[in-house]
Amino acid sequence: MRPYDIILKKRNGGKLSKEEIEYMIMGYVNGEIPDYQMAALLMAIYFKHMDDSERAILTEIMAHSGDVIDLSPIKGKKVDKHSTGGVGDKTTLVVAPLVASLGIPVAKMSGRALGHTGGTIDKLESIPGFKTSLSLKKFFENVNKYGIAIAGQTANLAPADKKIYALRDATATVDEISLIAASIMSKKLAGGADAFVLDVKVGSGAFMKTLEDAKTLAQAMVGIAKAHSKEAVAVLTNMDEPLGIFVGNSLEVLEAINTLKGNGEQKFVELCITLASWMCYLAGLGDIDKCKNMVEDSLYSGKALEKFKDLVVAQGGNPEVVDNPENILPISNQIIHFKSNKDGYISKIDTEKVGIACNYLGAGRTKKEDKIDHSVGFKILKKLGDRVNKDEPIVEMYVNEKSNIEYALKLLNEAYQISDDIPKNTQIIIDIVK
């Protein structure tokens, strides 16, 4: 078997066998196949694509290229949630305690911020004392005792994906459906959950900008799960504006806590309830309407808030954050405003630019080793369709002395469009793919 022949076969539109895919992926991981040949194969896949069976095989090989976590020490059916990334996306901080409060074990391994999207682990580390680095033994103990644990990925999960993604990033082959789906699902399969709820973002702040592409990705990921005898539901959600009202690490924790107290922004609450309901459905708690009623009861009765406090205490955080988040969380007291330059309605938001602008304040990373400032971020005062007057504040900017305020303002100015026409109302839940 030669790399040349496999590259040529895919370049000509052929279907690769399991042996051929495994030979290329594991050869690359082991250093036997050079970057230039793997890059050629990735480009061939980019133009000729993969069918459902090739995609499932690629995912399986990448998932088994490193550690595969065995969650059997945790009692009950394990349902994981994954978001394809957005701006202001703090849903895990609400959904995880919601689901755990209903008796479903939440064993969640999350990532850090990279690019224009935030990371759950960085947000949780805003809470003083909160430890996101747990041994697998401690991780299992916490889930069995408290019903919930959220930790950073310490295991060697899907190293093939890490190495191949870096090459995709350097060779303009990132945005191909099979490669995206295999990248996401290889880590999910290696994580050991029994079922998955996939929050597939679509719009200006999402990786997938069009509904057609987002639906294709959702179908691909659900198909991969089913091919590996796992249940999955994909929820297509709108990312044409920041999610909720806060963007930034401490600020998003504050919003999550307020939401668990029953004071969440309407669309954000709807998204959290929807995702949690589907997780409960996959866990076998009943039909989707029954699950929704259970989730709403947990949210508005305070059960989910108590479970969030359990999570904080179990992982060493200051429990006072639940009662007095504004005093416990590091939140900058330096606030400046981005204001409207005309009268009208907010008709369009380039949400990706909002996320990048937040990074220029210090809230995110461009490289994994970059340090972030938990105290900075945005409060979104005006959303899509809102009426604004000239010089009226649109965004409150929480800044520090290192923030690049000038460039952040420039990006916000480019991101927001104001017109005389009222835009149509945008729904947060666009579609469900099963």
From TrEMBL:
TM region(s), chain numbering: none
NCBIfam families cross-referenced by the UniProt entry: PRK05820.1, Y_phosphoryl
GO-annotated biological processes: pyrimidine nucleobase metabolic process; pyrimidine nucleoside metabolic process
InterPro entries linked to this entry: Glycosyl_Trfase_fam3, Glycosyl_Trfase_fam3_N_dom, Glycosyl_Trfase_fam3_N_dom_sf, Nuc_phospho_transferase, PYNP-like_C_sf, PYNP_C, Pyrmidine_PPas_bac/euk, Pyrmidine_PPase_CS
GO MF term set: 1,4-alpha-oligoglucan phosphorylase activity; thymidine phosphorylase activity
All residue ranges annotated as the Pyrimidine nucleoside phosphorylase C-terminal domain in the record: 345-419
A family per Pfam: PYNP_C
GO cellular component, as recorded: cytosol
Record-given protein name: Thymidine phosphorylase
Signal peptide: none
Subunit structure: Homodimer.
Keyword vocabulary terms for this entry: Glycosyltransferase, Transferase
Taxonomic source organism: Thermosipho atlanticus DSM 15807
Assigned protein family: Belongs to the thymidine/pyrimidine-nucleoside phosphorylase family.
